[in-house]
Specification:
Number of helices: 13
Distance between the termini: 26 Å
CATH architecture of the largest domain: Orthogonal Bundle
Radius of gyration: 20 Å
CATH class of the largest domain: Mainly Alpha
CATH topology of the largest domain: Cytochrome Bc1 Complex, Chain D, domain 2
Structural class: mainly alpha
CATH superfamily of the largest domain: Cytochrome c-like domain
Strand order of the largest sheet: 1-2
Number of domains: 2
Helix content: 25-40%
Strand content: under 5%
């Protein structure tokens, strides 16, 4: 990836307005245009590295007590997220944020909910070393992997080197960039199959890109503009969002917009996992948030009726 590309909210808004399609046909064309995935010069795709990264992803050997793997918190059955508000780490330690989906993670321009990590390779370090997740040390992890003859040989075969912080993070990043989801009913509809969505879901599509204006933040084929906003979810003194990175009070309780891909599977919702269902999410947006002082200007009451809320939920399920 080329730099962090940390765009301000104002720049993102300007780009969004500039790229707003003028017709339904232009909208469908825009939604079909997937970006090109970027790769670091020192980590171009390689089949052996991908296979090694996949093996590591599912192996609890990455955690200090060998009980937690990446896949422990990112399960395919739950849209590569988890079905609990906060996933337990080693010794059942709990952090403060809901596990995000990893589908299409390789397209993200920066990582973590506050956007402070510029590359996927660097992001891999966070859960491995985080006290409430895997709680391990990269040097000790490399020693553990090199003590395993099979792993040591696989690293040498893939990288020409043994397990190190460099090769471990690059193997995992290689695998995670293969986690691409673009075969939903929504994708078929965008691709020209008008029967891919039910009548109700098509009504929800029109609301999403029209009256409800969900696409002002959840835009493009990846269903996110990667901006930082407060969406009206109740605030907590234990998580200040982007301000924890910037130390700027204007960033209090701002979080990166997540993708909505496979959102029907990723409950519970919001950065803290505080809402149990899509119905609850839509009700909160319909009311314009929970009424605190940090809600972003984009969040306003939607004034949708019960039938429109059902239609919007059906569309979300198509993603």
């Amino acid at each position: 990836m080329k730099g962090s590309r940390l765009l301000s909210s104002s720049i993102l808004l300007a780009l969004l307005v500039a790229c707003t399609p003028d017709s339904p046909e232009e909208l469908l064309e825009e939604l079909a245009q997937w970006p090109e995935m970027e790769y670091p010069a020192d980590n171009e795709p390689d089949a052996k590295k991908i296979a090694l990264g996949e093996k590591l992803f599912f192996d609890p050997v990455l955690s200090v007590d060998s009980t937690i793997s990446c896949a422990s918190c990112h399960k395919e059955v739950y849209g590569l997220a988890d079905n609990v508000s906060v996933s337990p780490g080693v010794e059942n330690r709990l952090g403060k944020r809901n596990s995000p989906s990893l589908w299409n993670v390789g397209y993200q321009p920066y990582f973590m909910r506050e956007g402070g990590v510029p590359t996927l390779e660097m992001q891999v370090l966070v859960p491995i070393q985080e006290h409430s997740e895997m709680a391990f040390n990269m040097v000790l992890l490399a020693q553990r992997l090199n003590a395993n003859t099979n792993y040591k040989n696989e690293f040498i075969d893939a990288f020409g080197d043994s397990a190190t912080a460099f090769t471990i993070t690059r193997a995992l990043a290689q695998y995670e960039r293969t986690l691409i989801y673009n075969e939903s009913a929504f994708d078929s509809y965008v691709g020209g199959d008008k029967d891919a969505l039910s009548v109700e879901a098509r009504a929800g599509f029109d609301l999403f890109y029209g009256k409800a204006n969900c696409s002002s933040c959840h835009s493009g084929p990846l269903q996110t503009d990667y901006g930082f906003y407060n969406n009206g979810t109740a605030i907590s003194a234990v998580d200040y969002g982007r301000a924890e990175l910037t130390l700027d009070s204007s960033d209090f309780y701002l979080f990166k917009v997540p993708s909505l891909r496979q959102v029907a599977l990723t409950a519970p919702y919001m950065h803290n996992g505080s809402l149990a269902s899509l119905e609850e999410v839509l009700e909160q947006y319909n009311e314009g948030g929970t009424g605190h002082a940090f809600i972003s200007e984009r969040i306003r009451p939607l004034n949708l009726d019960a039938q429109e809320l059902v239609a919007l939920e059906e569309f979300l399920k198509s993603l």
